């Protein structure tokens, strides 16, 4: 197990959260799938719990008000030293800030934004809570990737707002750029053209590490979820794209080696 660093470099994916209708049933799903336990978290935006893996915080799950009907999706949070300044940069670069910036108790300050293509992400200025506190073990987030139509225009947005360097995968039929900080890949942009799901649009995808992709995929179905893309081999490992019972999409991955996902 590798401990997450104490302070996140701005732009580093540092947390993932999910807002759902059924908080209890969702906890049961992820608790059974990833062996998470749960503790109450800041409730400024409604009931909220943090998922813990072997005592270390890995993700958050909140509950939507009964009258709100928003898309159910995992949200990737990117670290910031100043959420207000980052939110202003998002606006000035053609993005939108939908929530905040606002304080989440003593945990930190957050905003929910979207890039010019409409993909939603979070901004997190950590105080008492710095983000995901473990990595490299099954049940923990291992990678975050923007799935969009094409990467060139949106890459400029993320470069300007967060200071990323980008490195493109040179391939005639593969539109993929890694986002790097100090030469280390921290996330990626994946342009899929017309293969982008019409019902979702551009979106950030959270990858969770598992010990066995095929077994974990079968477990998703047993627990009431569904399979969108069955297990398949990729350069980073064995992947499967699945959805939880409320429709939140995520990817399961058994990484191919220690160099997968820049770790």
Automatic annotation (TrEMBL):
VOC domain: residues covered: 12-126, 140-255
Gene3D superfamilies on file: 2,3-Dihydroxybiphenyl 1,2-Dioxygenase, domain 1
Record SUPFAM superfamilies: Glyoxalase/Bleomycin resistance protein/Dihydroxybiphenyl dioxygenase
Superkingdom in the source lineage: Bacteria
CDD domains with a match to the protein in the record: SgaA_N_like
Full protein name: VOC family protein
Organism for this UniProt entry: Streptomyces californicus
Lineage of origin: Bacteria, Bacillati, Actinomycetota, Actinomycetes, Kitasatosporales
């Amino acid at each position: 197990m590798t401990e997450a660093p104490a302070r996140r470099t701005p732009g580093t994916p540092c947390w993932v959260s999910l807002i759902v209708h059924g908080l209890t049933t969702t906890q049961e799903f992820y608790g059974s799938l990833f062996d998470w336990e749960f503790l109450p978290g800041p409730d400024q935006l409604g009931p909220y719990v943090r998922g813990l893996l072997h005592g270390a915080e890995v993700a958050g799950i909140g509950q939507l008000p009964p009258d709100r009907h928003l898309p159910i999706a995992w949200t990737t949070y990117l670290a910031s030293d100043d959420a207000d300044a980052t939110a202003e940069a998002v606006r000035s670069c053609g993005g939108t800030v939908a929530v905040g910036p606002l304080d989440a108790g003593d945990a930190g300050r957050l905003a929910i934004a979207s890039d010019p293509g409409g993909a939603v992400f979070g901004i997190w200025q950590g105080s008492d809570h710095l983000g995901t506190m473990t990595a490299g073990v099954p049940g923990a987030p291992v990678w975050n990737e923007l799935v969009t139509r094409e990467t060139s225009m949106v890459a400029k947005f993320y470069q300007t707002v967060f200071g990323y360097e980008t490195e493109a995968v040179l391939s005639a039929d593969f539109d993929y750029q890694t986002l790097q900080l100090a030469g280390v890949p921290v996330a990626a942009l994946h342009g899929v053209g017309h293969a982008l799901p019409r019902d979702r649009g551009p979106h950030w995808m959270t990858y969770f590490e598992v010990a066995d992709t095929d077994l974990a995929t079968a477990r998703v179905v047993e627990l009431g979820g569904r399979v969108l893309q069955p297990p398949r081999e990729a350069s980073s490992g064995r992947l499967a794209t699945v959805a939880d019972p409320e429709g939140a999409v995520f990817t399961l991955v058994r990484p191919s080696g220690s160099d997968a996902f820049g770790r």
